[in-house]
Amino acid sequence: MSLVEEFFKQHDELVSKYEKYTEVFKNQGAERPAEVAKYISLSRRKNAMPSPIYLIYFDGLLNDEFLLECMDYYLENTKRKSRKAKEAREQFAERDDNSNESIILKKPSKRRVAIKEYYRERALKLGL
């Protein structure tokens, strides 16, 4: 069994414990759990390993060494390697098991916060 098949086998076992497919990622602190679930299902259809950016959401749910193997497999076998994927893998490998630091949750950019506030104010003005 290939590493990709093994990952998706463990993924299926994990997801079967939850009522909704996206609950796994919501419980892990994903800002947009539906997007994470969509990308992972897209990877499954392509029979490819998901990016380390999305694999970090399985931290604490799957074996850390297995996740590192999956991340390395992705970085070795993909044509387009993003800088963020490499950074996510490095942070995952370097983090201390005792620390509560999360590599998943990062502050949103100032631009994104400003856009969110703009639309929130606009909705209030329109009475939505």
From TrEMBL:
Q: Which organism is it from?
A: Streptococcus dentalis
Q: Locate the compositionally biased regions of type Basic and acidic residues.
A: 85-98
Write down what this protein is called: Phage protein
Which intervals of the chain are annotated as region Disordered?
Answer: 79-99
